Amino acid sequence: MSDKKQWRFEPLDSWFFREARAFGTSGNNELSSLFPPSARTVAGAVRTLIGETQGVDWQQFAQDGEYADLKRWIGFGDDLGTLKITGPYPLWKGERLYPAPLHLLGKGEKYVFLKPGEPVECDLGKVRLPQLAIVLPGAKPLESVWLDGADLKRVLCSENPKTVYRSSDLYDVEPRLGIARNNAQRTAADGLLYQTRHLRPRPELSIGVTVSSIPSELHPAHGITRFGGEGRASSVTIGEAALLPAASKQQSQNLLLMLLTHADFGDQRWLPAEFKSSEQNGIRVWCGQLHGVDLILHSAVLGKAAREGGWDLLNQKPRPVKSQIPAGSVYFCTVTGDPKAAVDALHGQHIGNETALGRGQLAVGFWKF
């Protein structure tokens, strides 16, 4: 039996997954909520519930030498031990949803795809930039749009989706006003107001994450834990891990690599460190190897940088804010070897840094020149 389990978080109230900006940034005192939550937020909730079910005294846990066996599995601070997560991802009626690939553009019920265009001269040199396969005036990238597994498989083969899930289908946004209290005087502190935007999920919505590489007895059957900002409670149930939809059986040297989760390539890079600039027939390309597969990268469609910060509980200070390549970004590659072996080696795997946090999970599709 696999050691992978799916943890399902269902709200008992609203959710608030704070964005990376600080209160008061550029004169703004309102903070929005991320969706889905960051990987560190979910990993923290998983580790907390495991610790609670094991009867951990957290003050003792923070001391060297205490709970050494448990720390081996769930780690301490930034060290996750052997624990690995995949996700997080929305669950709609218990089924996993995936971010829409960013080479898919839409207007109303009509869709069109981006693909590498003819070589052009630009600040990057002579390169193939993404261009529309068919002109559709007014078409825009499908940001904050989600697909089920069947539609993801269609889109990764340049077929139109049948159903898309927009943020407004999954949850409502609730503005909240908060105050600072002077508990000694039982009054509100002068001038200290703040605003947040909570998420009110539909009854069908929950958040899933696949947890692995820990003993089965550390997975609780169920529980309630604080989840996200303001310690909002969520119920947790544990079940069998959801399987990633199988890759298409098409045979082509042109592989489309899509990020299912945010990726961290370090040093403000937009592609994995394994790729180096090269030239092919006078056109700039990037050559590299991922999981033993030799690839040539021709073009990419990237979304806005995903900014992630958070609070360091161990050191009681904010985490440095980092920029990541957002989920949904796609890379147009060609494989120099056997395409079937390449798909088997890459589909569902992780690339980049902090893969134990689920970063950089890949789905593989195909594209045409």
Automatic annotation (TrEMBL):
Pfam families assigned: Cas_Cmr3 (PF09700)
Top-level taxon of the source organism: Bacteria
UniProt-listed InterPro entries: CRISPR-assoc_protein_Cmr3 (IPR019117)
Protein name: CRISPR-associated protein, Cmr3 family
